[in-house]
Amino acid sequence: MSETFIPVTERALIARINRKLAHNVPPQRVSCWRVGSRGHHEWGRYAVIDVYRNALVDATDNLQGLASDHGVIAQNERLVE
Questions:
Q1: Per-domain boundaries in the chain
Q2: How far is Cα 55 from Cα 48, in angstroms, rounded to an integer?
């Protein structure tokens, strides 16, 4: 039996992560580097930012992995491009 996946958009996944990160102390949020920007080339597409210090906490190209690390995506959900 084949497993069916539920599609999740990038925008929805970022919103889920941001709701989870808002409860951290200090609060954090995910933002996206523009494609072709210096930050995109050096650190990856997505950045986790400390809201109070405006400092980079983490960066990655793998949004689904970031969502999985924070427990906001189910195993039967997949990021759609």
A1: 27-74
A2: 9
